[in-house]
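Researcher: Quick sanity check before group meeting.
Model: Go ahead. Protein one:
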Amino acid sequence: MSRDRDAVRLAAGTLRRRRVCGGAATLILALSSMVSARASIAIGGQEPAPAALPQVAQDIGNPSAKVRRQALRALRDRGGPETLPLLARLLGDAELDIREGAVAGVINVYVPPPPGRRSISGAVEAFQVAELRVEVWPVPHELSAALVKALADEWPSVRRDAAYALGIVMTPPVDAAVAFEIIASLSDREPSVRIAAARTLGRLQVRSAAVALVGRVNDEDLDVRLASMSALGSLREESAVAALTDQFTFYVRGSAGRAALSALGAIGHSSSIPLFEAQITSGYPAHRRAAYEGLARSGRAAAAAPRIEAAMASEKDPRVLLAMAFALASAGRDGINRVLDALSDHDRAGAALVYLLDLGRTHVAAIAARLGDPNPVVREQIAIALGFIGGPEAAATLNGANGESEPSVRHALNVAQARIARATAKPASAAP
């Protein structure tokens, strides 16, 4: 298939892909230290019988599509980061189903099913799960290069899932050439690809995508507009405030209006404070929630704290109450324990975890204290939060949690420790 980006790519020359988080030594060290953690929580306590990788590698190059499909099945049955370079080779296979299966195989290595689930239904769900629950396997050079190349596949399903896979396996900051290719996918003729690109750009914190994302706020497809607004919120992109405010003013009550206000609440720009103040009394819970988030992130919550505390007595919506607690905690008032308590509530746990990452090291002592919570679901999420917050206090707390008996919590502790170790090592190992 011919795409506009092909001409640009040829003019720019051959892309050079380098993984920021380290070279071969880092890869080998990380794999050896984490495979045992993966084995400890395998379903039924048993790992599947491993395929013979040299034979699989040979089968990948076989001219028979049947043999290559068998090789793909062997890799997916085996799982594990050691399969990634071989899956990367299959991303360029001549057969559509093999390419699609290879992308799914890559995603399965990085995204374990949520608790109580044996599988994840597709790249979209995997991308959502991976926001805070992705494995920290390093990314082989050949894998990142193959995924970027797959963004120009002739089939939309491959282009879409490759974009999601990049958002899953990569971590910020990404190489400028990789960022350029994902931004180019915002102009894909298929809306689902544009949606995937927008979400991935937000996840990977690609700030150079801001102008293109603002342009997609007026996309002909509603879901593309919603994804672009969400990405601008993830980027905390202040230059998008005017466009998002226009969207909210025009669409107030619709999904576009909610998305615009949510993005404004994520950005928390001072110019939006009058809008946040007006919306805390809205009849729409989603508007009130976004308004309180905006007050927290704009630094205005301290001045509004007495009013927020008074309003909590009459607020009925549990999600809004959680956002109010977040706003109070951001202002140094009593609120952090309400946020932590929400981790045991299935419907609010995701939002609570995001708020904890926002509050970060200022509240790390209170967060770390909950690692002794009797509920293993809470302990697991505290471990996740500490891994993303990072810093010496978080690392010390994680390192001291040696007596954990719950397998899912032990796994979360291992991943969190690896995440902090990787973040600490980045300045020394980053590629130029």
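Researcher: Fine. The other one?
Model: Protein two, sequence then structure:
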Amino acid sequence: MEYSPPGMANRQRRPWRRSGSEPPALRLDSEMRRGTSRVLEPAAAAQLAIARRAKPSSVPDHVRLVLTLELRRELAEKLSLKAIKSERNIEAIVIGLIEAAAKRWR
């Protein structure tokens, strides 16, 4: 009998891992898997990038996208001051700024 670490003996593998293919949600069309390059439209490329990089969120219609920002100390302190004064966290401040900028792009 082969040794299994505790809790691993009855663990089942995901079916897509058994076959060696990608998970169904991220499957690319056959042209891209064969190595044939093609240029995607920007909207399709953006959807594919988020499908690959973002994780599902507990909030409906949202995704969890983790970013690491390297900011000048002065800017980070200004953002922190704004967050403290408005009694919100710095993430909410940055999201608000991004959403405001996105409205101007339309």
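Researcher: One line on it for the slide.
Model: The first helix runs from residue 15 to 19.
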